[in-house]
TrEMBL record, chains A, B:
Reaction catalysed by this enzyme: L-histidinol + 2 NAD(+) + H2O = L-histidine + 2 NADH + 3 H(+)
Pfam families reported in the protein's UniProt record: Histidinol_dh
Cofactor(s) needed by this chain: Zn(2+)
Entry keywords, A to Z: Amino-acid biosynthesis, Histidine biosynthesis, Metal-binding, NAD, Oxidoreductase, Zinc
General function of this protein: Catalyzes the sequential NAD-dependent oxidations of L-histidinol to L-histidinaldehyde and then to L-histidine.
Top-rank taxon: Bacteria
Family designation: Belongs to the histidinol dehydrogenase family.
Organism: Jutongia hominis
Assigned EC number: 1.1.1.23
Protein name: Histidinol dehydrogenase
Binding site for Zn(2+): 259, 262, 361, 420
Length: 430, 430
């Protein structure tokens, strides 16, 4: 891996390079996606089945569209029992963490008869998109469904493209069923997003769509935003390890590669105050790359977006981490909790040498759907908050309104909104 | 006002009519907006000053661009002292309400050395857009700045187009200063959004942009979303009054008109179980329209999007309110709190006959930036939550990781991510 001495110029160049991976550059497919969405809006199920025939090579009918209880049962027979056990253990942890995010409606009342509050209501219907294709990620199914379930969403509707055999990949079905999905439909791509956003004969419109997907799915989600809510559009995965001389180079190297293997656009960065660590990590990376099964992807990702950055002191290292605002941040320093207090921007923060990033991907409990590409400066991990919405509550007595009615009328009059002023005045007219 | 007996067909037609007001229909100005944004990105301040000359007819220079302390002082001399007092009283209430929304970072630890948590961090820089033009809304300035301030945002940066005299409207400056703004710049339109999103020589890039604006501003916000965060794009204002025979028709009529006066696209709807109330409200509306100063706007808005809907029972009335998911919902029934428990979708809920909607616009404390056009099904009022972001915290001891390391490796292997498995395995190699 390349080792770079941190300077302002270097940093600016690296930040610019990382931004090239932004998911905001898909313009050229927009027309295709809009056409698919319009067709689904108009022709509903019929359009879905045609696209599934065309893109997935499978004939789906109204009868075979929704996954049946029997298909779910069958899926269980095809998944390794030990893996089901691991999934169940992960679910316990993921649920426990997300249950701590649950918020309550609150109110505050005063003896003059005023009550103000905030009502929390779960979304009614949520759509979860699960990609098909080669890579099957049951962990992603869990991470998208469980927070919705914990929030109290009435119906969780999953869509995923069927395989050539017209079935959903067994492990996907098992994970979805264990997490508590309510409905599963065999449709993928932009057409699935259209179905969830507008509704068809078989699929009722949802309030929000979450889950990862290819560029067509991402563009479709962006297009229907406002009509329904969506989660943020995820970019390629990232890890930044912030380490001093106390870090174990072998662990750091292994953790960098765990993200580099995701895809060629993934980014793995070490920021360290120790030149010695920098060299050792670079050597360890070279050793691992030789033996790992996805070495080709790893090498490409490291060449394009991998860096070992040597900072002059911890302050500069921390500033750099805050500017990059990585999806995953590992802190491997003498006192990781102290370092953490200085971190402003990161999706998930892993503290100390035994908090390896993949622990968060699968098992610890926090969500692995995280802000990428610098958006940790303003976006948050997927959470129960994404599946609720708030309503303000205002209740005033005559007595309480009377005390302030003139002030409100004056304010409204200053804004030249006389009907606003009138609505208050009419309650105190003689 | 037209009185309509509720049927499924009527309801479907009304819902479709209301959706026509959606802010998602601005396509034709997109190219213009993108051109402005590109120009600002490239030419920074120079582009801003050129657009201000062109659109606002004012010569702004680097020296006069940022509002000075002297200009703020001068603004105070031009605003009615009583109005400043009213603004200060409103700020006390708005702050008190939003302070109740503040959330804390939390963690949960176990004796085996695991710690999981959620860290709350305020956004660093927030941009608040304030429209210029004829309508001056100091209340909007307060509602956008105060939650950011309460959240702990470091720098709140306001932009607003200057008047012909090269100055910012005094009441806007006074409201912004009282609410705690840090920087104010004289620039409006899509160019202001570009400046906030990309940064210029004078304005440093922000993390999030909030505040209302015309279609150019709305489109620009949509275009920069992802690069920075934005609040939701607001559509025209709405009120829905849910009333039974106990409601006072004069109050209901006045409240309906308080929203109808906003603009010709505003919507005012009464849903009631009482035919008698329906008729009386219609008469009262006719009476008020004759005497109110904005009667022309009101009449147009009522003709296009105003309805008095008569439901066969309260259940049907509540279902309709939930389907419309109004920005403002007034409940004027025998037992408004009981009715409120049955409400699923609304931006702000006003209970009882003294909780008139304008009370929430100015004074009570809850935010008046609310989800419109049915989006209360999944969006929330502007709140402190909009100005913070979360990071997950994960800290595991060797002991704790050892207990589960095999499970994680198995999960990673099932997903064919061997570098993920390796990063855990390497910590327990002999």
């Amino acid at each position: 891996m390349r080792i770079v001495k941190l300077t302002e110029t270097e940093k600016a160049g690296i930040l610019e390079n990382l931004l090239k991976r932004s998911p905001n550059q898909y313009g050229k497919f927009e027309a295709t996606v809009n056409e698919i969405l319009e067709n689904v809006k108009k022709n509903k199920d019929k359009a879905l089945f045609e696209y599934t025939k065309k893109f997935d090579g499978v004939d789906i009918t109204t009868k075979t569209f929704r996954v049946t209880k029997e298909e779910i049962k069958e899926a269980y027979t095809k998944v390794d029992e030990h893996l089901i056990e691991v999934i169940r253990k992960a679910i316990v942890n993921i649920k426990a963490y997300h249950e701590k995010q649950v918020r309550y409606s609150w109110f505050d009342s005063k003896p003059d008869g005023t009550l103000l509050g905030q009502k929390i209501t779960a979304l009614e219907r949520v759509g979860v998109y699960v990609p098909g294709g080669k890579a099957v990620y049951p962990s992603s199914v869990l991470m998208n469904i469980i927070p919705a379930k914990v929030a109290g969403v009435d119906r969780i509707v999953m869509t995923t493209p069927p395989g050539k055999d017209g079935k959903v990949y067994p492990i996907t079905l098992v994970a979805a069923n264990e997490a508590g999905v309510d409905e599963v439909y065999k449709v993928g791509g932009a057409q699935a997003i259209g179905a969830l956003a507008y509704g068809t004969e078989s699929i009722k419109k949802v309030d929000k769509i979450v889950g990862p997907g290819n560029i067509f799915v991402a563009l479709a989600k962006k297009a229907v935003y406002g009509h329904v809510s969506i989660d943020s559009i995820a970019g390629p995965s990232e890890i930044l390890v912030l380490a001093d001389e106390t870090a174990n180079p072998r662990y750091v190297a292994a953790d960098l590669l765990s993200q580099a293997e995701h895809d060629e656009m993934a980014s793995a960065i070490l920021v360290t105050t120790s030149e010695e660590l920098a060299k050792k990590v670079s050597d360890e990376v070279d050793g691992f790359v030789k033996v790992l099964s996805r070495s080709e992807i790893i090498q490409k990702s490291l060449d394009a977006y991998g860096y070992i950055l040597v900072a002059k002191d911890m302050e500069e290292a921390i500033d750099t981490a805050n500017e990059i605002a990585s999806e995953h941040l590992e802190i491997v320093t003498k006192n990781p909790f102290d370092t953490m207090t200085r971190i402003r921007n990161a999706g998930a923060i892993f503290l100390g040498e035994y908090s390896s990033e993949p622990l968060g991907d699968y098992f610890a409990g926090p969500n692995h759907v995280l802000p990428t590409n610098g958006t940790a400066k303003f976006f948050s991990p997927l959470s129960v908050d994404d599946f609720i919405k708030k309503s303000s509550i205002i209740s005033y007595s005559r007595e309480a309104l009377e005390l302030i009615h003139q002030d409100i009328e004056d304010f409204a009059t200053a804004e030249k909104l006389t009907a606003h002023a009138n609505s208050i005045a009419v309650r105190f007219e003689k």
